[in-house]
Amino acid sequence: MTTLPRFTARNCHLSWRDWAGEQEILPSGDTEMVRLRLTRMGRTHSPYYRICAMDSRSARDSRAIEYLGQYDPCNKDEEKQINVNVERAQYWISVGAQPSETVASILKKAGVDPTPGKKA
User: Fold this and answer.
1) Considering the domain boundaries, does residue 8 fall inside one?
2) Of 3, 39, 98, 118, which has the fewest Cβ atoms less than 10 A away?
3) Distance, CA of 66 to CA of 88 (rounded, Å)
4) 12-48 burial: b if 16+ Cβ within 10 Å, else e
5) What is the pLDDT of residues 65-113, one digit of tens each?
6) What is the total count of domains within the chain?
7) 1 and 17 in contact (C-beta within 8 Å)?
């Protein structure tokens, strides 16, 4: 009978299949899916959101790949509600990042076409 490795901070992400040696092998060309989405910031009852590029499997408020701007729904001035780095948002969309529904509507207001893929 084989013994399982000790539970440490380095291997806490492993499932029981990985521990038993039945590790699932991904194809070598597999890349992570990047999404443009919001992370919540601010205080209770007064939120603002950062628009960021993140791995689709990560949690809402986890580390982002890149921050693209911010959205402040509590600001009365509609021009100051949305602050987006348009150039970087267009770059991420051109390389295939999928915006969430909310981010797509925010990008439309900022003047960015939210459909993924290269533009002709």
Assistant:
1) no
2) 3
3) 9
4) eeeeeeeeeeeeeeeeeeeeeebbbbbbeeeeeeeeb
5) 999 999 999 999 988 999 999 999 999 999 889 999 999 999 999 998 8
6) 1
7) no
Amino acid letter for position 103: V
Domain that holds residue 93: 33-110
The answer to whether position 26 is within a domain reads no
* Residue labelled with tokens 């039945």: 22
- At 1, list the tokens: 């009978």
The residue behind tokens 């084989």 is 2
Identity (one letter) of the amino acid at 62? S
**70-76 own/partner pairs: CB under 8 Å, 24+ apart:** 70/41, 71/38, 71/106, 72/48, 73/47, 73/48, 73/49, 74/46, 74/47, 74/48
Pairing of strands 34-43, 98-99: parallel
Is-above-0.90 flag for pTM? no
Let me know if residue 119 belongs to a domain: no
CB neighbour list of residue 55: distance below 8 Å, 6 or more residues apart: 32, 33, 34, 35, 65
